[in-house]
Write the structure tokens for this entry.
Amino acid sequence: MMLRQLTAKSYLLALSLFGLLLFALFGFNLLLRGDAVEEIILQEKQQAAKAELRRAVTTVIDDAQQILEELAQWDEIHQQLGDPTHYVYWREMRLHKSQQFPAYLRGMELYSRERKALVELPYQSFPATLPGRRLTLTSREGREYLVAYGPIPDRNGGTDVSGYLGIQIDFAQAIRQLNRFVEIDPKSLDLGFVRDGPVDVGSLVSNIDYALVEEPTASRLGSILVSSLRDFFLLFATMLVVFYFTVSLLFVRPLAQLERYIDRLRHGGREGPVLSVKSLPAVAELVTVRDSLEEYQRELDMARTRLDKQNIELWDLAHEDSLTGVKNRLAFDEDWKELIALARDKRIDISLMLLDCDFFKAINDTYGHEVGDRVIQSIAESLQEVLREGEQLYRLGGDEFTTVLINAGRDEAHQVALRCVESVQHHAFKQLGIKETIKLSVGLAHANGIDIANLSELPRQADVAMYHAKSSTRDKIVHYVPNLEQDAAALVSNRIVGAVLHALESGEGIEMHYQPLVDTNGQRPEYYEALVRINEPGGLIRPVDIFPIIARRRLDVELDKAVLRAVEKDLQSGLFPQGAGVSVNISGALLALNDFCEFFGGLSKYLDRHPIIIEITETSFISHLQHASDCLRKMRQNGFLVALDDFGSGYSSIRYLANMPVDIVKFDISMVHDLNKDQRTRIIVEHAANMITTAGYKLVAEGIENAEILQRAQALGPSHLQGYLFGHPKPLRMFADA
Ligand code: C2E
Ligand code: MG
Ligand code: MG
């Protein structure tokens, strides 16, 4: 079960509320206990009061008894008993005026031996005859009196009594005077209920009303408790508030601050409010976290800067043409798409200019790859010199360049094109050892403010214009007009371009034709060279038309892949001559790939039945010498053979050959046909052939068209011969027909 996550603030709040709740429970419990304690104290006090009252009552009774006994011993009493003549006077004088008796003694009566009062007075408070009970209570004039009787012993000895004595004691006064009360408030004693009758301590005590002495501690216990609780609550609440704000200030807020800070870091430090962790409180742990975070952010910033730099470098690398330093095809495609999006709804004139060097392949072949590269670089420099600021030059591949002219109509664009052509024409190519004049063909296409919607059509239109410029010797700058599309040549061109592109996209129409290579003796086909054709309704498209399109669009790898698939399919069909080898032409672009070897996985399955030869041209080999050598070495280890194609058409440097993992060298047609030239050339070719065969390479002579060339070629000591004399390239189905 997932615990719901709460914020630190919520936890803090919950903790504080929990503290308050605990306090409330504790306070309530304390109040209950306080009440119980108060009750117990009250009960104990009442018991103590009862005992105190009992003692007080007993004291009064005992005191009455003692007075009786003392009076019984008094001489004057005995005298009165003997001669009661002045009894009334005596009693008045002695009892009330002498003050020798306690104030609470309020009355006294003497009785004769016969239990009769000495003097019978109608207002007398004592009965005329001594009553049977020795103690009675009586109420008179709103006061309660204890009446006690006792015998007066005879002084002559014996058991006789000389009379009896009765005394009246003011009970309330006596009880207060004789006792010191602790528990009972003496003023509150109330005996108003007393009736005449017998006296016993128990009933007397239970009938006396009284109030307890006010006990300050006990009675105020509750309020003390409540006020203590209130004070404690205030203290506790204050502490809670202080605790809440301290924790909030020291931890919760900084945590939230750190959280926002980290969140911002997570979003690359570029989004969200700019926060400063500098304002965090000085808590050691937080300061450590802050320092670590700042350190981390510094490292992150540095890493990000490095990455940004690398990204820019990588982007530049990906969008830059490594040979010339101008932007490449990828950059053009992206910029063009962006321009189409931007220019929509805007009434501006845009011209697209395609520039292509005439006869560049011939220059490359004649002067070699290195010179070819420098020619391309020089063309790029010359063009950049005349292009204005903001007119970006792109190299689309090979010798083809392009630029987009914004706010340039037909005339302005023509002027720019003219400047480009002249700039290249006047460049000092002679310094590179080139004798011929290097010329450009330019194709221009325009979109003005009105037909801006046709912007995406511009590259194709510029292509058509370029085609015309190429095929014309006079008009080297051609502007696209719809009429050009009517032109048969242009139509063919467009048809071929469309067919080639469609074949590569869909894989349809690619057809391999196979040309035999025969051994010199038996003239038996030992293997066949696979040569690509594209089959379309208008006829077969041959390499001479296919490769310029492929090169312009840099589709070499795509074509190689399609060819390898087609050859594999043909081997799989079972129509291929049993045991015969097959040689496949591979472009330099594929050879440059890191995973070159992996493209041959499909073919390697047939190695046990058919020798497979990989044909690489000298130029593509030398362009990636180290990588090519590694790859081809590996391929040879896997059982493939490697042939160096078109030897003699490019560098023709035997120096390189020694380092190349090659089994077969194929002499280019031009080289073979050179045998028909002057003797000197023939001797050079023958010596080259001799060196190659002596070094252990197999030699193939291409372009054997007739018996004469055959005869001369045989003098080279080749292992195989190839040419129309032995067979034209033909599709696989024709092997089945044969
Ligand atoms: P290559 O590899 O040197 O192929 C030999 C070319 O010479 C073929 O032209 C062939 O038809 C032609 N040929 C054969 N015998 C004679 C002859 O007696 N006289 C003359 N004048 N020509 C002869 P093709 O098929 O037009 O191919 C031209 C070039 O295109 C090839 O030269 C090769 O470099 C390239 N190519 C052809 N097919 C492929 C392919 O499948 N992949 C790649 N990457 N390149 C290919
Ligand atoms: Mg070949
Ligand atoms: Mg060749």
